[in-house]
């Protein structure tokens, strides 16, 4: 019935699927959260098709869950209430590039690596880089960031406009193509980070950056991760324009060396990057080296070669996958707190204690320039005792962050994994978020069950 | 009655006023829009008082219009429906500075100059600088910017969190103290730019920047403003990290020389600034000088002395006041379109033609690094023929911007002056803004009559 009716809309058997493998692929993200099959997966190729599918879903109160690369870490893409998984893989066109305006318009299924390959000939790039080769649609939906946020900001700062289909099938466009505007409410920022609960994106206008003339990377080794965290604080507080500053602990490096065949020293390390003109880079990296020495760095190694540098960041981006691949049949869990920079070293120190207390074999990595860090490890979700230890640990790390001016999620979003923490963190304003959700999606068809814990009586199902 | 009841809440005759001069001062902003007296002006000193006043207003459906420095340019502070003008002059405390986190918390009545004076001892500053010495509350409400936006962004990017009183008197806090977060909807950005229509701010958390080691300013002269606009395009497209890049035309300089007693050359000029370490500045300004020469600059003058530099930017910030002061009894009007950078020179050229066609004696200035420029002039609002010429001119300049991927307001906001243009520019998404407004302020007591044109039947009055 559902399948047949969607087939009438899409009119292509290849793009409406109830194949079990396909349903299974759309039942979960990358992590430990229990999956659930959608009733059907639809692969739209045009904005018109998205509108038609959403209108159909609205008329029949069928849940719609947007799906990109499936690399979400908090269960965002799980069709908790069944319904339609709307897969944007085929809407992966770069719509138009405006190099002279540092702008690009893309369909939501374009991935960040695909986009940067496309932009290279213009001397431009899109800086936001979560570990996975996520889609721009998914990245916008979770307000993703990554190693470049310290220099270029998160998705929120780099999305200038959106086209989105609302829960009733209305197609709206927000924002625009200018670098600034004070024309009405900032709806673009409202949709960015809304995790598919307010609208389904069909086109995204992104701000681009010029590829710097020169870039240099470096590794700074420390006796322990807390010392490395303190050094990151010093760098930030110096005001130097750092390009990237990433904490990796020996466990992470061990996992990456194993997974990627690299041979990085398995020591507490900061991976650093500095960009600019040749002179700026020479001066900048020397200044950073001095700072590192003052902060007790044991050794400072340059990575001048561009291939080696790419390898370094590829290694960093692979950390999560590498960590989870160590033991077979493990699923990833990752904490994601973020604190003000002056709280960072203490928060890392506290987290290490908690991790040890719960005997969890976690690797510690962090976008420490933003005060954001993750404990990464593999779990067997069927091992209830292990899961309980993980949840206890996560609770304590989040509680610490909330008590120290922090947030429960720096970049992964709420999904289903952080709903109870959001209730604590945003106790005073959550009702505004819920009111906006209820106004824009009164039947709760857009990604239901995410972001907000709802009372059963509130649910339409 | 209203006065008596508010006096019971505030309990201080000095801070509840129906004095005619005070009412008159709160009847309008800086510009040509027809004023209207509030019924009463209240000067709260605490958040609790704000909550109590709003609760009282909510219970009695009395309009509330937040008032800061009164420097708004689009009539935001005019109490169109009477009611309470809520003046934040006395809530002007810097609540706490966290220099190590580059953060400050302020009450909404703090002005930008007051804040920067306070921050200087920490080596920090708040970069957003509209011309007037506006309050941080007002700047957040209109998503203000100014000469530094090209380097540091607008208010949206520099406000990390807010405390706000909703239309029902609920006190909420949004955002936080971390540099990034993906915890729920981006409510801070929703409130920033909402022009007092969604909530009344009581505290604002701002991101600060380090005062650069070295700063240099320069003036580049051109044959005409279009050539200067083209040069600005080149600078932006080169990707160089320009600190400020401001277009001023001979009329502006003439007015400023007269008003400030300066003696700048009355030629089409770009005022420029570059900051960084000493080496960066030397290299950066040399590169910019070369770009300017390639773009046909007639002469390039450095302004190395910090006093002279301050004078230069003070002159630029005084442009609007200077222009309007030329003729007695004139009120300011200012256009405020913003276009993508590749459209800038053409838009300036078109605007000059329109200005001449309507025989308007306008000065042209612009934050051209953002594609944002203003035609400034004085009008006599009682001269209907002159007002008609202004409105025709403004209509044509805005229409051109909207047809060329631009926005009707780069930084001044909608207020009452841009409502009809907002309807055009955001035709597809205006109903979302209205729905949010209706959800959060169902009785329309917060700054009624602003941002949205409402049908009379929709109004509660």
Write a compact overview of the structure shown.
Chain A is an alpha+beta fold and 461 residues long. In chain A, 37% of the residues lie in helices and 19% in strands.
Summarize the helices and strands and which ones pair or pack.
The structure is a homodimer of 461-residue chains.
Chain A: H1 2-10, E1 16-17, H2 20-25, E2 40-42, H3 47-60, E3 64-67, E4 84-87, E5 94-98, E6 103-106, H4 112-119, E7 124-125, H5 136-141, H6 149-152, H7 155-158, E8 159-165, E9 171-175, H8 187-191, E10 200-207, E11 209-210, E12 214-221, H9 225-238, E13 244-248, H10 250-260, E14 269-276, H11 278-294, E15 299-303, H12 306-317, H13 319-325, E16 331-334, H14 344-357, E17 363-367, E18 372-379, H15 384-403, H16 419-425, H17 430-440
Parallel strand pairs in A: 2-4, 3-4
Antiparallel strand pairs in A: 1-2, 5-6, 6-10, 7-11, 8-9, 8-10, 12-14, 12-15, 13-14, 13-17, 16-18, 17-18
Protein architecture, described:
Chain A has 3 domains: 86 residues, 2-Layer Sandwich (Uridine Diphospho-n-acetylenolpyruvylglucosamine Reductase, domain 2); 117 residues, 2-Layer Sandwich (Uridine Diphospho-n-acetylenolpyruvylglucosamine Reductase, domain 3), CATH 3.30.465; 214 residues, Vanillyl-alcohol Oxidase, Chain A, domain 3 (3-Layer(aba) Sandwich), CATH 3.40.462.10. In chain A, 37% of the residues lie in helices and 19% in strands. The first copy, chain A, is of the alpha+beta class. In chain A, the strands form 4 sheets. Chain A has a 7-stranded antiparallel beta sheet with strand order 15-12-14-13-17-18-16, sandwiched between helices. At the A-B interface, strand 9, helix 8, strand 11, helix 9 and helix 11 of A face strand 9, helix 8, strand 11, helix 9 and helix 11 of B. Chains A, B: Belongs to the FAD-binding oxidoreductase/transferase type 4 family.
